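dumping this here before i forget
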Amino acid sequence: TSDFAPLLRLKRANPSLVIRGSGEAVFINDTKATPSLPKPHYLATLHMKASDKSDAYVHFAYRFSPEPPFNILQISSQLPLLAAQPIEKSGAAAFAFVSGLAVVNRTVVISYGAGDRDSRALVMTMDRLDELFSLESDPSAPQRASGTSAANISTADESASSADKAAPDGGDHTSHAMNSSNGAGAGGETP
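structure:
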């Protein structure tokens, strides 16, 4: 549970919404690289889906206090993951699912699976990740041109996950690395 007001409002407005955190957290103590939260904190990821029956996920980074009770301090705008359709399930929606997080020398690596077939990584600078937090501190806020809100989770089943359509600003701040289990799409890719 959480006492983070935007998350509570989102859950009240969408009672069937499923919100789950990740198993890893990275301690961050770099105030210059995190101007939207210039104090020590933990960084982790969470995912949401419309209901327990949904296969469409949306993913966010979040920051929480390093002190008990470890309150959530910020939630980013939706992470720009590149989804893939599963090979085994004809007609199934494309999806991605975060599986890991690492921070090395101000570089953030978010590993994820796409369509149960590809291993991928979203790689960005700490500065770029901090921009995702400053774009949208309230996951229940309306969608903005520069990011996608968790409020759009209810539409994730009707179309491909909106995470698949969210594009980072590109440049040298964000990139995707892919490794396909079927041999296609291996190598680096910048959206």
